[in-house]
Design goal:
- The protein is an alpha+beta fold and 486 residues long.
- The protein has 12 helices and 22 strands.
- The chain has an 8-stranded mixed β-sheet, sandwiched between helices. Strands 4-10-6-7 form a 4-stranded antiparallel β-sheet, with no helix packed on it.
- α5 links the parallel β13 and β14.
- The longest helix has 20 residues.
- The N and C termini lie far apart (96 Å).
- The model has no long low-confidence stretch (mean pLDDT 95).
Amino acid sequence: MGISHGVNASKKPASVSAPVVAGSGIHFIVGTAPVHSASGRVNEPVLAYTYAEAVEAMGYSDDWEKYSICEEIYTAFKLYCIAPVVMVNVLDPSKHVSEETAKDYTMAAGTINLPFEAIADTVTVKGYNDGQPASEAYVQDTDYGLLYTDGALRLERIEGGKITADNTKLNISFKSIDPSKITKSDIIGGYDTNKKKNTGFEVLEDVFPKYRIIPDLLLTPGFSGDSEVAAVMAAKAENINGLFKGKALVDIDTSEVRQYTDVPEWKNSHNITQPSQIAGWPMFTLGGRLFHHSTQLAARITATDTDESFGDGCPCESASNKTLQADGMALADGTEVLLNIMQANYLNENGIVTGLNFTNGFVSWGNETACYPGNTDVTDYFYNVSRMFGWVGNTVILSTWGKTDRRMARRLFESITDSLNIWLNGLTSEEKILGGRVEFTEEENPETELAAGTAHFHIYLTPPSPAKELDFVLEYSVGYLENLFA
């Protein structure tokens, strides 16, 4: 070693470190999108922070019955201004298609509007020779152009091409994207051995490795009412990447369940009874549009998480009694649904979140997960309390992952407990929890476990329950009669 002459300084790692706080209220939606109009992707996670990003990646249509992801795009970005959203489209333009018979179209002002479902790459345009379709087709981008706009695939004649102003009648054939061919198997997904990729809800496993975020609100409007889909969603929400926790938002099918009194029976018969599920009924309306319960509730939960007055980036507050972007409630066929407070509470008593129009407009109403009333563990049935446990667990995993495989030493364990206790004390001072602490005790760490490289930490945590009932007692006080003589 050479001679050191002078003054030196070096840095010692801090004994405590700031936690890596997990995200909260990040949506993961599996559904259908008009990707044929945007050269979009199939069975890949797409992260979007803005409406423009989402539309560019997925395409857009107001026909939400066919394209469920578009409902989420509109609700999240237009109505609630929340981000980000992770979207997985399962509608495949190479698979879910229908062959359209060639038919005649009449050109007006040099244009023809084809159905929006027409796939541009499959369009064949021919003119006529002696009253019969020509054998040779016109050439796209030379004789005509195609553009998805205003809910149609617009064909426009190109000046200088072979289609002249006199060619008003054209014979056109194409293939159409067909969302009706999507089945619950597409939504549930799995692993495609041919393409070597995950599909459907299995794509959830790809999100953290790709984007380093944890989606904790899972939804699939239009499909979650199926008991098998709902069960898969619940299982995925309980075990994201084998480590993290989330919640599955389930839509109770309003085409099957038309009366509020029938909802609990439907819920139980479809096995919607898990702590990781939040079940909602009915649908919502706004300006003539019909919204699934899950898209509105997911957006309202995220807006509550991120509101400085409520969660400020933390899921400590319930979204119940918070205003929705809605002007009514309805069934799938548009039939209006009216609920009074007693009817809404009946649904809550059976583990169902609903809506209520009372003193502050339409609000989400209900704090319970689908496990209630069968499961009355407060850490399971109040969804904000349950989400807090999941969020704290997710944060602890992210914050301490870098310490895995370091040598077992007292300083390591002190660093972990000190860092996390400082964070929990901060949550306590902000009233996001009523109290919390981390302990590393000899009683919970037998020698055999420590020798095998396993250390156990105990986190004590008390998130605040929602103030779901405020009880006032009114009593007539005779003493105030003295004020008559004051």
